Amino acid sequence: MLMKYELIIYWSEEDCAFIVEVPELPGCMADGSSYLEAVANAEVVIQEWIETARELGWPIPEAKGRLTYS
């Protein structure tokens, strides 16, 4: 499944890891020791988030791509 959700990726000194946040999916985050590992982990977590939402009957947000903040 092609993921089109926006990912916010940053290095965390505190965690010594790359952190990935998926703002369109509440609470959806992943990490990894490398940038690529963090993104790969995020893909798994996004799929698990969607599967869990389906099981619980929660709405699944449409991927909007890049979000605009002000």
From TrEMBL:
Q: Which SUPFAM superfamilies match?
A: TTHA1013/TTHA0281-like
Determine the domain of life of the protein's source. Answer: Bacteria
Name the InterPro entries on file.
HicB-like, TA_system_antitoxin, TTHA1013/TTHA0281-like
A Pfam family cross-referenced in the UniProt record is: HicB_lk_antitox
Q: Where is the HicB-like antitoxin of toxin-antitoxin system domain?
A: 8-64
Q: Which Gene3D superfamilies match?
A: 3.30.160.250
Identify the PANTHER family for this entry: ANTITOXIN HICB (PTHR34504), UPF0150 PROTEIN SSL0259 (PTHR34504:SF2)
Which named protein is this?
Answer: HicB-like antitoxin of toxin-antitoxin system domain-containing protein
- Native organism: Dactylococcopsis salina (strain PCC 8305)
